[in-house]
Amino acid sequence: MTIAEAQAIVDKWINENGVRYFSELTNMAILTEEVGEVARIISRQYGEQSFKKSDEGKQLSDELADVLFVLICLANQTGIDLTEALRKNLDKKTSRDSERHKQNEKLK
Fold first, then answer.
1. Closest Cα partner for 7 from 58, 63, 70?
2. Extents of the domains making up the chain
3. Where is the NTP pyrophosphohydrolase MazG-like domain (predicted)?
4. Which fold has domain 3-80?
């Protein structure tokens, strides 16, 4: 699925199942919460923290999908074409950073 298709699918889902989009501020809070859940899993799976009983059944893929869903909601409700936004962002990063990381001794 393309990014544009994902935006359309989420919009359709919201209109059919979610009644309406939450406000932008509510979705920003939800996005922050979902990113926190990703951080929790990563800190336990790849970091030094140990898993708790409440972490059972939590999957990084599902939590990342939650982040993506809310990010798409925010893009949809603010009129942002994520395909074009990502294209422009990659162009910016390429012009700004194409040599920068090659010179980073920490990455060698």
1. 70
2. 3-80
3. 23-100
4. Helix Hairpins (1.10.287)
Name, in order, each residue with C-beta under 8 angstroms of 64's C-beta and a sequence gap of 6 or more: 38
Tokens of 103: 């010179």
Q: Using alpha carbons only, what angle is made at residue 85 by residues 83 and 87, rounded to the nearest 5 degrees? A: 70
Reading the block at residue 64, the tokens are 């990342």
pLDDT tens column, 47-103: 999 998 988 899 999 999 999 999 999 999 999 999 999 999 999 999 998 888 888
Q: Report the candidate in 71, 73, 39, 30 with the shortest Cα–Cα distance to residue 58.
A: 39
Helix, strand, coil tally for the chain in percent (to 5): 75, 0, 25
C-alpha distance from residue 8 to each of 13, 50, 57, 75 (Å): 9, 39, 29, 11
**Phi/psi at 30 (nearest 5 deg)?**
-65, -40
